[in-house]
Amino acid sequence: MASRKDLLDSYQFAARRVVSAAVVHETDPTEWPYRRLGGAGMGAVMITVIALAVAGIYGMIRPGGKTSWRDGSSVILVKETGATYVYLDGKLHLTPNFTSAALLAGTTTKVSTSTKSLAEVPRGPELGIADAPANLPVAADLVAPPWSFCTQQVWDTSNSELSRSWMLVGERPDAGTEIADAGLLVRTPSGTLWLIWQNMRFEIPDEGAARSALNLGNQVIVPVGEAWLEALPVGRPIAPIVVPRAGQASKALPKARIGQVRKVTSSSGTQYFLTLASRLSPITELQASLQNGAGAAVKKATPADVSAAGQTALRTATDPPAQAPDFVALRDSKTVACASWENGEFVPKISVESEVPVDSGLNSALQTATVSANGTSLADRVWVEPGKATLVQSRPSPESTSGPLYLVTDQGIRYAVPSDAVLSSLGLSGQESWSLPAAVIARIPEGPALDPQVALAALHAQEEIKDMLSGG
Questions:
Q1: Which of 76, 92, 137, 345 is deepest in the core (most CB within 10 A)?
Q2: CA gap 298, 274 in Å, rounded
């Protein structure tokens, strides 16, 4: 019969075989398995120590994202909250938006870090421009012209008639008929009648005097918004010329009176002249009709009379048409009228019965205050494709070669960009900008200028207070 010692030895032997089978996959190894296991463990410890040492050395050479913002050359983005900071002069400064942070840091480069990593860093005053854009576009997001400005008569909830306008950045309306040399009569909410001809606007201050001269008759008059009309280049009003000393004797011709219209018919056609104090001035058939409608007598003259009297031309490039134009055929006054500009154009192409793409989100576009703080009429809505923007130079005249540069965002607001350095801070250095008339750009609501000095204003104010307290 086996003793208790024999039973213990057999148990330990069986246990060793089980352990050996589990560790080295052998039931009868030549050496104790834990010896091999101990060596493996020691190797693992050594590998861990080496890995930690390498990581430490790498961390000394290239600090991690938690501290790399300390060089002040990046925008600090807090992971947990999305808040933006800049690090200036050893202090963290909260900013109200990403654009402010980019202006202060001079770059759009971001470093994400945690709230914990910033916990012990000294704080300075909040810096930035409160109403600057929350986001900035990248170069691929910038859209080119055309720009289109459309207007149409609509009705509000009380069934009152209104003239609304929409600015479409980077879009041209569908369909429509260009008016070209045809005339289009429009009326603004203030009641003034205008002729649109050759894509320019001409005021008709006295409808009675112009009715016969322009053959107004039963022509359709299209209601348009003030902002839309003011964006168009303006010509000389269609009205009688006021002649000084009208009715008095003129030296231009015998028995002539100042203000009379002289009509000369020859083989080359009919010409009209306005009698001035000492000479005759050529005028158009339309102008002659306007003068006659205002009470000026029309007298015949010969080519010899005109040659002897001398002439002074008064016409300019912005004069109204020479004759009453043919008017564009319209179904009714509810038509959509649109003006479209390509890059560098000052005179747009105007079309009627266009189709404004309202289904593309136009009705959800920014609704403006209608009139700016300085009294400028604004487009009722400004549409920029979501996620897009544009850089546009505002030029006051066709002859001008420079003008203010603006960033127009998908919120339908324009922001002045005062310098190339600022453009670089916004991540848009070297990007193409386009030019359009100042009268068009002015229809878009204006936000604050993106000026780094304005963004630093709070810091400057704090320094001034310190100087005052220290008696500096």
A1: 76
A2: 9
Nearest C-alpha neighbor of 336 from the set 214, 228, 439, 441 = 228
* Residue 11, token pair as written in the block: 């148990």
- What is the per-residue pLDDT across 432-451, written as a single tens digit (0 to 9) for each? 899 999 999 999 999 999 99
Note the pLDDT tens digit of each residue in 122-163.
Answer: 999 999 999 999 999 999 999 999 999 999 887 766 767 778
Q: Please, are residues 135 and 108 in contact by the beta-carbon 8 Å criterion?
A: no
CA 352, CA 350: separation in Å to the nearest integer? 7
Closest CA to 226 of 83, 435, 379: 379
Strand ranges in 259-346 using DSSP code E only, listed in sequence order:
261-266, 269-275, 280-283, 298-301, 337-341
Q: Both tokens of residue 55?
A: 């990581």
Characterise 335 by phi-psi region: left (phi > 0), alpha (psi -120 to 50), beta (else).
beta
Query: What is residue 391's predicted lDDT score, i.e. its pLDDT?
Result: 97
Residue holding tokens 């020479």?
322
Nearest to 436 by CA among 383, 394, 384: 394
Question: What is the spatial distance between Cα 402 and Cα 266, in angstroms, rounded to a whole number?
Answer: 49
